[in-house]
Amino acid sequence: MPVSVAIVGPAGSGKTTLFNALTAGRGADGVGMVDVPDERLQRLAEAVNPKKTTPAQVRVEDTPPGSRAQRVAFARQADILVKVARCFGPDPEPVKELDELTLDLVLADLTSIEKRLDVVGKEARAGKKDAQREAEVLTAAKAHLDNSKPLRTLALEEDDRKLLNSIFPVTLKPSVYVANVADELLPSGGEGAMKVMAIANEEGAPAIVLSARLEAELTELDPAEEKEMRASYGIDESGLGRIARAVWEAGGLITYFTAGEPEARAWPCERDSPAPQAAAKIHTDFEKHFIRAEVTSVDELVAAGSMDALRAAGKLRIEGRDYRVQDGDVVFFRVGR
Ligand SMILES: Nc1nc2c(ncn2[C@@H]2O[C@H](COP(=O)(O)OP(=O)(O)O)[C@@H](O)[C@H]2O)c(=O)[nH]1
Ligand SMILES: [Mg+2]
After folding, report:
1. Residue with the nearest Cα to atom 14 of ligand 1?
2. Ligand 1 centroid to 250 CA: how many Å?
């Protein structure tokens, strides 16, 4: 399953424009699969010369028109939220508009928590095992939401956080903030962008400054023109590249690679995943049948030219099931059957 990203935010903030920029106009009905640019995969492919090169993908969705409830439901089905704030045009009010967005999401979680607390509260009073702790966590979460704060900013132990999963909390989702600014304010973005970054900082969420309209226009140029145009605005990386990195950071993801003759491929994976779990990204059976991982780095593989050459030289690290796969690892999984 690819990582799924929902573009959310107030009306007129540039969500659809950003969607078109990210999908280079190839999305349909507000949904698009987007290849994540990664120079490491390119270098690997040049060295290994595989038949096929497969980048990591994200599924990007634009908020469909609809009621507030529908917009919340839309946000709820995504893994990661990209929150777009309007910092261009007349009288931008990014703080007010982002607060309103947060409030919509907070109210949705509050409603779910109240319903759940009704049930769990009764169970706790009846002495049902585990209900006591869940009721406590829900009560703390409710108090936090009552203060208009997203659950993201409530300090919770991992086990307690899991207890909240039953309500599918939308304010617990990782977020990336996008300050959508007028292109004359690039690259810094000016006052509006500063305010958006301050909001992001408070939540420990990454923030990006861009002009969605400029990004959309840039997708229509050939690479050389695009690069030159970007440079004239003082930007050295595409909006897509920057958003992808922010999504990885917010979502706690890393990328590892496989590089064989048939295919060189980038695999998104949760940070700190043990090797068998990382292997399951390739095939679910790989987790159960995991034997060992043979590991190197992109640079070493590029220098050697192939996994086989490194193996023959005894330069592949052998790692067991406790190994945590790292960002940038190139891995060959040995699996049994
Ligand atoms: N100046 C400027 N206008 C933009 C930018 N991004 C979007 N817009 C304009 O803002 C309006 C609303 O954009 P849209 O993407 O439809 O917003 P949505 O309602 O959030 O989907 C459109 O007229 C866009 O052309 C931008 O970066 N700069
Ligand atoms: Mg729109």
Report:
1. 14
2. 25
Q: Which residues line ligand 1 (CB under 6 A)?
A: 9, 11-17, 88-89, 180, 182, 211-213
Handedness of CA 215, 221, 227, 233 (dihedral sign): negative
**Structure letter (DSSP) for residue 324:** B
Q: What span, in angstroms and rounded, lies between the C-alpha atoms of 78 and 170?
A: 9
Q: How far is the CA of 64 from the centre of ligand 2 (A)?
A: 7
Round to whole Å and give the CA distance between 136 and 128. Answer: 13
State both tokens at 219: 């997708």
pLDDT of residue 3: 94
Whose C-alpha lies nearest to ligand 1, atom 19? 12
If you measure from the C-alpha of residue 152 to the centroid of ligand 2, how many angstroms do you get, rounded to a whole number?
Answer: 26
Whole-number Å distance between alpha carbons of 24 and 152: 31
Atom of ligand 1 nearest to the CA of 181: 27
pLDDT for 169-207, tens place per residue? 999 999 999 999 999 999 999 999 999 999 999 999 999
> Given the structure tokens 């067991």, which residue do they identify?
320
Beta bridge partners of 35: 57
Instruction: Give residue 1's pLDDT.
Output: 77
Share of the chain above pLDDT 70, in %: 100
Is the distance from CB of 286 to CB of 325 less than 8 angstroms? Answer: no
Question: What residue ranges define each of the domains in the chain, with the CATH number in brackets?
Answer: 3-39+56-92+173-250 (3.40.50.300), 94-167 (1.10.150.300), 272-335 (3.10.20.30)
Using 50, 70 and 90 to split pLDDT, how confident is the model at 337?
confident
Which residue's C-alpha comes closest to atom 5 of ligand 1?
213
Of ligand 1's atoms, which has the minimum distance to the CA of residue 210?
Answer: 27
pLDDT at position 123 is 94
